[in-house]
Amino acid sequence: MDFSKVNKKDLIIDLVKFACFNIVANILMNVRYQEPLFSEKFVYSLVFLLTGFAVYHIVVSPLLLPRI
User: Fold this and answer.
1) Gap between the Cα atoms of 34 and 28, Å rounded
2) Tens digits of per-residue pLDDT, 14-50?
3) What residues does each domain of the chain span?
4) Whole-angstrom Cα distance, residue 1 to residue 43?
5) With the CA atoms of 8, 14, 20 and 23 taken in that order, what torsion angle do they form, in degrees rounded to the nearest 10?
6) Is the pLDDT of residue 1 over 80?
7) 10 and 57 Cβ atoms separated by less than 8 Å
8) What is the DSSP letter of 7?
9) For the purposes of burial, counting CB atoms within 10 Å of the CB of 51, is it exposed (0-12), middle (13-18) or buried (19 or more)?
10) Number of neighbouring beta carbons within 10 Å of residue 57
11) Is there a contact between 35 and 27 (Cβ–Cβ < 8 Å)?
């Protein structure tokens, strides 16, 4: 795997953007519906979502973009 083809700037921007979105949504759900703040389910969901974005940027994007 050639990590030099990974657009690290876009990867970091996506990870920060979606982590921020999910954290704010979790806080607001806690305020509105009294759901647990940063529950185990939320943490796993966030980790899986961010892993999906990382896999896209590291594996899929370098293979896909040269073919488009």
Assistant:
1) 9
2) 999 999 999 999 999 999 999 999 999 999 999 999 9
3) 3-67
4) 29
5) -110
6) no
7) yes
8) -
9) exposed
10) 19
11) no
